[in-house]
Write a structure and sequence with these properties.
Blueprint lengths: L1 E10 L2 E11 L4 E5 L6 H9 L6 E6 L2 E2 L2 H4 L2 E4 L11 H11 L4 H14 L15 H13 L5 E5 L7 H16 L4 E4 L3 H7 L2 E6 L2 E7 H7 L4 E6 L12 E7 L2 E6 L2 H18 L2 E7 L3 H9 L1
Parallel strand pairs: 3-8, 3-9, 6-7, 7-8
Antiparallel strand pairs: 1-2, 1-4, 4-5, 9-10, 11-13, 11-14, 12-13
């Protein structure tokens, strides 16, 4: 488990991180989201040891990180950092060798990653000849070539089309499934919502929300339900403890109170609906990550 504890950092008189704390669990995909200038990249650079913190510390599996620990990390910066005139495979093999891999092991790992990322046919091309999306895939291969114990990725989905997003998501999820903590930042909240296990929301250098995707949805949602019937749903307004938000013929969106009373009211709606006839749909409504983000950073 990667643990960030009470990290603060200032540049001159400007405090960019203020007691930032969160964890990235083993085998968990943790989305790190925030607006421009929120502190995401600075936090990641401190985790990697590229920047120092003014206070606080970073631990891996309960011990303070050392330079040798960080050599086992995989890092993808937001800025493209590959040598533009080197061939793709040659460069990734070279980076694997820098991490202590034998030439044979680095070559095998590079070939496997390029194949999985859909770049096998471009292995002998120079980086500068690739599209921006394919350069992004190559950078992800570079971060993964040495089978890192921890992955830290800054905007890994930037510039990728929907098919490429699916490909990269699959590769990263497989790596997390092997037990590695994976921390990634992204402005594409729909992608984060789809693939992450946990969320960390930062704004103004402070953590505003953190936890599993499900727990954050529960914390930041009112108990709302939608129901769709085969007949008119107007009677839902008459159920005690129910406040109808939207009513359109056979469809109703309604809110109940928190706690057991609210759950009982929702169950009463469902029970009456089933007794009256077919129920096409009945489900709780959860907020999207975009809605949660707007709420906590407001």
């Amino acid at each position: 488990m990667l643990e960030v504890t009470d990290i603060s950092r200032s540049f001159g008189t400007t405090k960019v991180l203020d007691d930032v704390s969160f964890t990235v669990g083993d085998g968990r995909m943790t989305g790190f989201v925030g607006g421009n200038g929120a502190g995401k990249t600075t936090t990641m650079r401190i985790i990697l040891g590229v920047l120092s913190s003014d206070s606080g510390h970073v631990e891996l599996d309960g011990r303070r990180l050392t330079p040798s620990d960080r050599a086992l990390f995989g890092y993808m910066p937001e800025e493209r950092g590959l040598y533009p005139k080197m061939k793709v495979a040659e460069q990734i093999v070279y980076l694997g060798r820098l991490h202590g891999m034998s030439n044979a092991a680095a070559t095998r790992s590079t070939g496997d990653l390029l194949d999985r990322l859909g770049l096998a046919e471009r292995a002998s091309d120079t980086v500068e000849s690739l599209s921006l999306g394919n350069q992004q895939r190559a950078q992800i291969a570079a971060a993964l070539v040495h089978d890192p114990d921890v992955l830290v990725l800054d905007e890994p989905f930037s510039g990728l089309d929907p098919m490429a997003v699916e490909t990269v998501q699959s590769v990263l999820s497989e790596h997390a499934a092997g037990g590695a903590p994976v921390l990634f930042s992204s402005h594409q909240l729909d992608i984060v919502e789809r693939i992450c296990d946990d969320l960390v929301v930062i704004a103004g250098g402070s953590i505003r929300a953190r936890g599993s995707r499900e727990s954050l949805r529960e914390q930041h949602s009112e108990p709302r339900y939608e129901i769709e019937l085969a007949a008119d749903a107007g009677w839902v307004r008459d159920v005690p403890g129910v406040s109808v938000i939207e009513l359109d013929g056979r469809y109703a969106l309604f809110e109940v109170g928190r706690g057991d009373g609210g759950a009982d009211a929702a169950q009463a709606v469902l029970t009456r609906a089933v007794a009256a006839g077919p129920v096409t749909r009945f489900a709780p409504i959860h907020p999207t990550l975009s809605q949660i983000f707007k709420e906590v950073v407001a």
